[in-house]
């Protein structure tokens, strides 16, 4: 199933398809179609068929897609047919909320540790976790071979934290700090910031 | 400054440029260049010049961009040269964290109310807000002429909440629930889900 040169924008739609398909599976639905997915997701049926066809032949003309099979395939393609442990950096409001987030289960991820630099937070509980000292982060991440981190620290600290994470072996960073962070080639970053999302919509408002 | 037919993907990059430029302005920087923005953002300088040129002539060959002027222009274009009030729906971990989020100020938004359906949460405090009864939401939003909402409710409730919000006059919804929601034409939705971000990165990992 290894493929080269799939555009990242196509890769970015696969998790959206997977999420919708997993929800259908939870509702005990067995079959779907590009038309039904299109109505749920607001993406054209032609685009959905084209995206999926880049990875193989998943549907049959006239009968549509077998949901369980397509879920399995997408989980393999996205490498979430396993569970990735996550380290959360920053035990403020956002870091604590994502550490306690219930939505990771059955989707390929679980938080296993959370760190902060604030002596007032170290040792306190966040959900089932004890906040660990940032000074011990690199060792703990290396030892546990963690590859995925979520960064929820102030903007001014985010770049330094990212550099420490990369040195510790992290390959994928979801950054909640409202600043762009730069990482070496072969390391992946996604940024999430409510304000950039909101501004993208206010552009269209009167 | 009204423009037609700017691709949404270009619109989506403007908040990223604005965020970087505002940060430079906070550091008392006066001028920048597409090259410097490119290095900060990992977007090519040619792309940045092309994106900005769709909205006007902002830079001079050889002297670059005046940061204060470009910030003003981008704030106008994105309609954040004003402050949009936000209603937050859902006072769980995520809703509470975004309601308390300090990163809205000076970026065009402020949270002004938060609602929940849980009698155990109604009347409690989230930061400076008292959680209001979901039953009173439509009236409160209409009366205050609020146009922007953030939805942080369980997936199974998100579509119904979105429909209630649209009826109350909301035009832009940032959805934290891990499910796609459908809205009528002329209403805007952005989805944010840590798992879809993470899966987009694990695709590339070994």
Task: Describe this entry's structure for a reader.
Two copies of one chain form a homodimer. Chain A contains eight helices and eleven strands. In chain A, 41% of the residues lie in helices and 19% in strands. The mean pLDDT of chain A is 95. Chain A has 206 residues and is of the alpha/beta class. In chain A, the strands form three sheets. A six-stranded parallel beta sheet of chain A has the order 8-5-4-9-10-11, sandwiched between helices. A three-stranded antiparallel beta sheet of chain A has the order 1-3-2. At the A-B interface, helix 1, helix 2, helix 5, strand 11 and helix 8 of A face helix 1, helix 2, helix 5, strand 11 and helix 8 of B.
The average pLDDT of chain A is 95
Helix/sheet category of chain A: alpha/beta
Q: Strand content of the residues of chain A, in percent?
A: 15-25%
Order of helices and strands of chain A: HEHHEEHEHEEEEHEHEEH
Main pleated sheet of chain A: 6 strands, parallel
- Spans where pLDDT lies below 50 across 5 or more residues of chain A: none
Specify the oligomeric state. homodimer
Percentage of residues assigned to helices of chain A: 40-55%
Shape type of chain A: elongated
Main sheet of chain A: which strands, in order across?
8-5-4-9-10-11
How many β-strand runs of chain A? 11
The greatest interface here is: A-B, 60 and 60 residues
Distance between the termini of chain A: 46 Å
Estimated radius of gyration of chain A = 19 Å
Number of helices, counting only DSSP H or I runs of 4 residues or more of chain A: 8
